[in-house]
What does this fold into?
Amino acid sequence: MDYKNFWLSILRRLEPTISRSQFLTWFQNTAALTIENETLVVGAPTNFAREWITRKYALKILQAAEEENSKIKEVEFEVDAALEDGIDPRTIDLRAVFAKPGDKKIYKARGREEVVLTRSGILSAKLNPRYTLANFVPGDENRLAHAAALSVSRTPGLTYNPLVIYGGVGLGKTHLLSAIGHEVLTNDPNKIVAFTTSEIFTREFVLASKKFKADEFKKKFRDIDILLFDDVQFLENREKTQTELFNIFNDLHQKGKQLVFTSDRPPSELTELMDRLRSRLTWGLVCEIEQPSFHSRLEILKNKTRERRVILDPELLEFIAMNVTNSVRELESALAWTTAQTDLLRTQPTIRELGRMLEKINKKERMLGLPESAPEISIRTPAEIIELVSKHFNLPVTEICGVSRKKEFRTARQIAMFLSREILGCGLAEIAKNFNRDHSTVLHSCRRISAELQKNEALIRHVNAVKKEMGL
Ligand code: ADP
Ligand code: MG
It folds into this structure.
């Protein structure tokens, strides 16, 4: 059974029913892994994605799957880390397959655009336009790799050749590799940069061999200036392909052309690679990217929020940085999750709320930095919220419900109205009565706070502080 096509037909059914940004955020890098008995197993790249998809879309997916294949009675969701990179052959490039005429700009700015890097159009895998040096946050864990990447992009072929960057999943290897490509092309647009991966390289080589065009395949590499080769570990046990790479390596290296490789292990541990190729990988500089420290994780989060133009309470960012430690990819996912929650709840989650979510997703016993257990408070009426807001801002209740249009009173008043509506779910009429206003004023106030929460950091903090007081 062709699972990829099957998944595509399911996605085609889902796509019109889901907002575009949600669709792209959560279904990029997903795949149908298998069908066992009556169960479709769907793979997601991270815990966060799996959790979100399960919660929000499980039913839709099941319905679509049943319509495609009536034998299917259940859907299960699994995390498959191999899907993370977006180049796994089981995944579908949603931005390409589900391209929309209006997409172009967004697609250019943040998508994975197919960049044709080479004059002859060879081997041009995707260089993600987001993966630039400017977007890469340096830290102790990647200091050497970052410096080497800079040096190699300034003077390709002259310093470290080959450069090998290794480290665990989701730590920034592909990002740095692509950044070298962008940087080289910025410095000299005439350079020919080839970006490839073990998968693509193997596929193209096998295809060329089948058609008796192995020579043409070789020839393609003759003219390039820089070879960027991602995830070389996947060449293990593929002897013919290794030999091919070995020859290309020799040819390019001899001509003083730059080679850069990434790997999940140091070359010495790539035991299933042929000796002569393995030894060549150690000719230049080998450097490791390690797990990011707390400080770097926080910096990366700040960077990503700036890049994506979202504003989150700094406390939330610290909390994420403290608790999501495995990889930068997981950090990004946690951030996407938090932003999505923010859209859904119309206010930002408090630390406690976020903690509860992360606990579930990470299956951790206890999160770090969680406030002591929630105080036993039950707030049920607008009057009680007015009381809390009055305490928080240190303003008299009479002013909050009074007529003054002074800014500080008005803001406190509007926050109290907003929370009465969003958290308590009170009706406009009831709220209006408590504040001695009419309901169009209440509606206007709630809308204003809602809009401000998208951009006003101070306001976000006030609202969250009051929510915290409410035991949330
Ligand atoms: P790897 O190839 O090592 O598995 P990636 O390069 O794909 O990891 O990185 C995973 C995600 O984390 C990417 O979205 C990347 O932009 C981001 N990332 C990793 N390291 C950094 C960093 N130091 N600064 C900014 N973003 C990073
Ligand atoms: Mg990678």
Notes: The chain has four domains: 3-97, 106-289, 294-362, 382-469.
